[in-house]
Amino acid sequence: MTPVLYELRGRDDRLRFSPFCWRARLALAHKGIEAELVPMLFTDKSPIDFCDSTTVPVLKDAHGVAMDSYDIFKHLDAHYPNAGNGPLIGDAQAQARLNFVKVYAEQVMAVGFFRLVALDLLAAIHPDDREYFRSAREARFGMSFEEFHNVEIARGILDSAFKPLRGLLANQPFMDGDAPAAADYLVFGFFIWAHIVSDTSPFGETEDAGDPLVQWRERMMDLHDGMARKAPRASEIAQ
Ligand SMILES: N[C@@H](CCC(=O)N[C@@H](CS)C(=O)NCC(=O)O)C(=O)O
């Protein structure tokens, strides 16, 4: 069977911005696997009724179902170990280290991105989903979207969160070394999320082309035939 990736769609079906779904898309591209992409709304999860997940991405293929972006990496490595560009994660030691990258990306860096684009994200979400998403996330933030969206605070968080990435990328082209793999995709998911929903740069009013992190972001945009660069952005699609 053709693998199927279930992913979140936005107000327009071309808007596919979920950071977790992007991890899965990039991982599939890394393996050279073409998947059918099936959209889902927050408020209509019927496409993934067949499994035990309430979130996307979900990947279904001939080997079974993987219901989380990180589990999709593991599933692809288990069932397609040497396909395309090879392993995503690597050995057990590499996986143990990757766990740190995942926690850092989701619990430190992502907060900065979310505060940078919160209102743009809400506008990019399907109108039927906005009330659900607003109330679920406001309960989590402990404040309104309008208060949470704060470019100055966001850039402060990101300036700090970007330091370890810059330190690493000053010495190697990708987080995983000479070529991109799971660590790069885990982190880049949040960059492409913000890029699709908003025109506000995470780097400030002007971007420094000599910044190793800006250079890495550009390399990531170019990967796999420029799939991230080609992704339609909210600002390109009429409201
Ligand atoms: N741990 C999951 C998180 C996935 C996740 O939170 N996905 C969001 C879309 S970006 C979702 O489906 N949320 C459903 C909901 O909040 O009801 C992963 O890494 O795959």
Pick out its properties.
239 residues, 4-stranded mixed sheet, alpha+beta, 2 domains, Glutaredoxin, Glutathione S-transferase Yfyf (Class Pi), Chain A, domain 2
Tell me about this structure.
With 239 residues, the protein is α+β, with helices and mostly antiparallel strands. It has two domains: 4-79, 3-Layer(aba) Sandwich (Glutaredoxin), CATH 3.40.30.10; 92-230, Glutathione S-transferase Yfyf (Class Pi), Chain A, domain 2 (Up-down Bundle), CATH 1.20.1050. 54% of the residues lie in helices and 7% in strands. The protein has helices spanning 19-30, 69-79, 92-124, 127-141, 145-148, 151-169, 182-197, 212-230; strands at 4-8, 36-40, 58-61, 64-66. It has a four-stranded mixed beta sheet with strand order 2-1-3-4. Helix 1 (19-30) links the parallel strand 1 (4-8) and strand 2 (36-40). Helix 1 (19-30) runs parallel beside helix 2, helix 3 (92-124) packs antiparallel against helix 6 (151-169) and helix 3 (92-124) packs parallel to helix 7 (182-197). The longest helix is centred in the middle third of the chain and has 33 residues, at 92-124. The protein is globular. The protein starts with a strand and ends in a 9-residue tail after the last helix. The model has no long low-confidence stretch (mean pLDDT 98).
